[in-house]
Every structure is written in structure tokens, then in C-alpha cells.
């Protein structure tokens, strides 16, 4: 174990708080991550945003002392952080994550790492060069309904993530939203993929829908996103050996084998836990406390597949 990891693990075992920075205080931070981080024992939470009014309001809501509020990254980095969560807009991810990794701070960043694949590749290489944890927020890998699907026969996988009236520029739509579909398919496919097929509809430079097919020996996986579907929904189905499991909006699990059996999210189960965010946060913090280094190499493979989808969409639009 490297000296800084030994010191970090020793401090944790001695009850010294883990200093965690949260950069960016938008909706995803306020609704999903701060409620989890703010409720963890042994975490000294520092907030950073360039907007003083937002910083004051959010800090008051989560009872963060004035000394742990920061309006610039330099001030935050001066706190000798043990870890950081990046929830700033994607366009500034490369700059922020570069500075964190260069400072040796284990970093968890919202997907995607960056809009450009070259930036994502550079960040992963920097994390490996510095031997610092870099994790990407693919929370569906931790969502209970989805992780349970990994134990089900998966000869056919179908995932739909649809929206109402939101056609968008292809790169933004694929990297900001469709990336969840791409990563979930990669997570669930039961073997190596030997065929990738992409279909899409682009009008006026905006992507209306996209379909990704991954196939391998004995399985086919389909990922669908329709931005003009008339419904905001997320449905995952895995089937095989004459059984099917369906997960609706990450909250309702329906097992089909003859008669359907429905399991709904419990009334007292937090949304962050149902969506896998709590589990992702705790897994990252556990690695920080033990000094384990998390690799973003597999997350990079998802970004590379997204770039492949994007190229296919652009070729069809040309």
C-alpha cells in the first residue's frame, strides 16, 4: 500500500472524518447525492459552487458550516480532501477532474466523463498514471432491480428509456442520456459482443430516436431511446429459458413464468437506494477508506461504444 493510502486508512480507522468535496450543486447533487453524503457518519462534507446564493441555500439546507463552503476550486483543494464528487456540467468535467487527479484526490464523477472521447481517454490515463481512484456514476449497475436481472437468464435483453418532446443534438443526447442504456446493456450481456448495429432517425440536426443492438453467442441485447415517445419511462426486460423479468422505472419488478408476480418499491425505501445511487456512493467511500484504487477503464469502454453509436448516427444523417 502506498504511504498516502496507509495514512488515509489509518486516519479512517482512528475515527478521523473523511473530507469529501462536492463540486456542483445542481438538481442531481441536491436530490440524489447530498442526502446520502450528508447522512453518512464520519464524513466532513465540503461544498463548492461558483454561485454564492446557491452555495448559501444548499449549505443551510444540509447544515454545512461556513468553513466548509467554497466558491472556487482552489479553496476546496486547499482542504486536503480525501475524496471528491463532481456534479458540475459535463463541459467542465475535464478541467475539474484533471485538477483533482493531479492533486491525488480520489474522484467520483457524473456520467459522462467528457463529451469528447479523447478527453475521457486522457482522464482515465491520468488516473492510472497517478494511481488515483476514478469512478463514473453509472448508478444503474447498483440499482437492486437491475442487479437482480444479472441473476436471470438473459438470452434477450431489451431496455427502453424514453422521453416526451426532447429531440436533441446527437452528441449531447447520446453522452448525457443514452449512455445509461449503453452501459446497462454492457453490464447485463452474458458474454462477449461480436456484432454491433445502430439505427437512428435524425431530422434538422436533432436526434429523434436511436436503437442499439449488441449480439453474441446465444444472446441479443436491444437498447432503445425515443425522444418523441409521448411517455417518460424506463423499462428493462430480460428473458430466457421461458421466463422473463421486467423492471419498470427502476421501482417495480415483474417476474413472468406463467402468472406474473409483482414486487413494488417499499414505501420507506429511499429513491436514491432504489436507483442505486446510495450503493454507488457507499462503494466509492468504502474504497476511499480502505485505500483501494478504483479503475474507470470499464467505464471508458462504455464511452467508446457511445462514440461508435454517435459515428453511426452521424453517418446516417449525412
What is the distance, rounded to the nearest whole angstrom, between the alpha carbons of the first and last residues? 52 Å
Task: Indicate the overall shape.
Answer: globular
Low-confidence stretches: 1-14
Q: Classify the beta-strand content into a percent band.
A: 25-35%
Helical segment count: 11
Number of strands: 14
Q: SSE order in H/E notation?
A: HEHEHEHEHEHEHEHEEEEEEEHHH
- Biggest beta sheet summary: 8 strands, mixed
Radius of gyration: 20 Å
Average pLDDT rating: 93
Structural class assignment: alpha/beta
**Percent in helix:** 25-40%
Question: What's the arrangement of strands in the largest beta sheet?
Answer: 8-9-10-7-11-12-13-14
Write a short abstract of this structure.
The chain is an alpha/beta fold. It has helices at 3-13, 27-38, 52-61, 73-77, 93-102, 117-130, 144-149, 170-188, 271-274, 277-290, 297-317, and strands at residues 18-23, 43-48, 69-70, 83-86, 107-109, 134-136, 156-162, 195-203, 206-216, 219-226, 233-240, 243-248, 252-257, 259-264. The strands form 2 sheets. Strands 8-9-10-7-11-12-13-14 form an 8-stranded mixed beta sheet. Strands 3-2-1-4-5-6 form a 6-stranded parallel beta sheet, with helices on both faces.
Walk me through what this model shows:
It is a single chain. With 318 residues, the protein is an alpha/beta fold. Helix content is 40%, strand content 27%. The protein has eleven helices and 14 strands. It has helices spanning 3-13, 27-38, 52-61, 73-77, 93-102, 117-130, 144-149, 170-188, 271-274, 277-290, 297-317, and strands at residues 18-23, 43-48, 69-70, 83-86, 107-109, 134-136, 156-162, 195-203, 206-216, 219-226, 233-240, 243-248, 252-257, 259-264. β12 and β13 form a beta hairpin. The longest helix is centred in the C-terminal third of the chain and has 21 residues, at 297-317. It is globular and about 55 Å long. The termini are far apart. Residues 1-14 have low confidence and may be disordered.
Amino acid at each position: 500500500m502506498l504511504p498516502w493510502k496507509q495514512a488515509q486508512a489509518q486516519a479512517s480507522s482512528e475515527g478521523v472524518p473523511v473530507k469529501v468535496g462536492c463540486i456542483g450543486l445542481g438538481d442531481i447533487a441536491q436530490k440524489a447525492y447530498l442526502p446520502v453524503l450528508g447522512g453518512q457518519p464520519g464524513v466532513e462534507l465540503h461544498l463548492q459552487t461558483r454561485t454564492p446564493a446557491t452555495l448559501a441555500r444548499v449549505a443551510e439546507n444540509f447544515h454545512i458550516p461556513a468553513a466548509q463552503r467554497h466558491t472556487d476550486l482552489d479553496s476546496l483543494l486547499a482542504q486536503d480532501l480525501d475524496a471528491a464528487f463532481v456534479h458540475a456540467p459535463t463541459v467542465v468535467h475535464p478541467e475539474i477532474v484533471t485538477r483533482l487527479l493531479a492533486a491525488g484526490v480520489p474522484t467520483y464523477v457524473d456520467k459522462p466523463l467528457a463529451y469528447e472521447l479523447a478527453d475521457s481517454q486522457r482522464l482515465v490515463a491520468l488516473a492510472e498514471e497517478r494511481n488515483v481512484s476514478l469512478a463514473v456514476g453509472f448508478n444503474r449497475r447498483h440499482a437492486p432491480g437491475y442487479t437482480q436481472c444479472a441473476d436471470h437468464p438473459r438470452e434477450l435483453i431489451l431496455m427502453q428509456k424514453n422521453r416526451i418532446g426532447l429531440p436533441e443534438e446527437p452528441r449531447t443526447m447520446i453522452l448525457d442520456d443514452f449512455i445509461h442504456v449503453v452501459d446497462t446493456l454492457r453490464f447485463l450481456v452474458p458474454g462477449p459482443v461480436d456484432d454491433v448495429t445502430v439505427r437512428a432517425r435524425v431530422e434538422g440536426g436533432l436526434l429523434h430516436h436511436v436503437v442499439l443492438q449488441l449480439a453474441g453467442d446465444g444472446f441479443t441485447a436491444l437498447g432503445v431511446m425515443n425522444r418523441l415517445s409521448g411517455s417518460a419511462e424506463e423499462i428493462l426486460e430480460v428473458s430466457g429459458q421461458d421466463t422473463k423479468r421486467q423492471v419498470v422505472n427502476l421501482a417495480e419488478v415483474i417476474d413472468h413464468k406463467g402468472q406474473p408476480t409483482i414486487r413494488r418499491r417499499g414505501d420507506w425505501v429511499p429513491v436514491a437506494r432504489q436507483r442505486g445511487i446510495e450503493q454507488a456512493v457507499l462503494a466509492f467511500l468504502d474504497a476511499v477508506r480502505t485505500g483501494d484504487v478504483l479503475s474507470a477503464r470499464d467505464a471508458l469502454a462504455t464511452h467508446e461504444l457511445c462514440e461508435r453509436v454517435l459515428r453511426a448516427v452521424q453517418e446516417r444523417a449525412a
